[in-house]
Amino acid sequence: MGKKIVDGAYNTMVERLRESHTPNLFLLNYDLPTWQVVDFLVIPKHFFVEDIIEKRKALAQTAHRSGWVGCNILLQNIPLTGKIFIIKNKTVELKDKVRAEWKKTLFLREEKDLGAKGWLLDVMLSFERINRKEFSLEDVYRFEDYLSQKHPDNHHVKDKIRQQLQFLRNKGYLEFVGRGRYRLA
């Protein structure tokens, strides 16, 4: 699928995000010579925040729609749990598995503040990059600089990380194992 996909008008997309009118996004990848579906997945609308939208350069003055500004959707800024495969590597996923993956993150719909949702998604991306089912608070703290750059107005990043981990634990997304250790549920 790549790291990003081309989308429509930047201002329209940002407006839709702020008004919570973003639809779910379905992506299809197929083998052109055989027309065989390789991957078919959905990114639920509750994973869409401004941080996954990249503003493109305005079209040149020589272009038919001079000055128009489009956007890209940055797939690498979406946690793996936000990419729900229906078909993966030419294999149809079990219906119960797809439904379970969908339900696992429905709590994100409740968060209407895009900034707060962005923090949750950034922390989720951080512990996904650890690439272990069980991890420690110290493991997540290693992303403090990254999170500080993404959220420069927050001067208490470690506190915010703990808050987000507690929230994710309370929603059943994570399990608290004890002594600063967590496990993906």
Secondary structure blueprint with pairings:
Blueprint: E1 4-9, H1 10-18, E2 25-31, E3 36-43, E4 53-58, E5 69-74, E6 84-88, E7 91-92, H2 95-104, H3 114-130, E8 134-136, H4 137-141, H5 144-150, H6 157-170, E9 174-178, E10 181-184
The total of helices stands at: 6
- How are strands sequenced across the largest beta sheet? 2-3-6-7
Whole-number mean pLDDT: 94
CATH class of the largest domain: Alpha Beta
Main sheet: strands, sense, barrel: 4 strands, antiparallel
Q: Which range does the strand content fall in?
A: 25-35%
Using the alpha-carbon principal axes, give the shape.
Answer: globular
CATH-defined fold name of the largest domain: PvuII Endonuclease, Chain A
Level-2 CATH architecture of the largest domain: 3-Layer(aba) Sandwich
Can you tell me the residue ranges where pLDDT is under 50 for at least 5 consecutive residues? none
- Helix-strand topology string: EHEEEEEEHHEHHHEE
Radius of gyration: 18 Å
CATH superfamily of the largest domain: Dam replacing family, catalytic PD-(D/E)XK domain
Please provide the count of β strands: 10
N→C terminal distance: 27 Å
Secondary structural class:
alpha+beta
Bin the helical content: 25-40%
Number of domains: 2
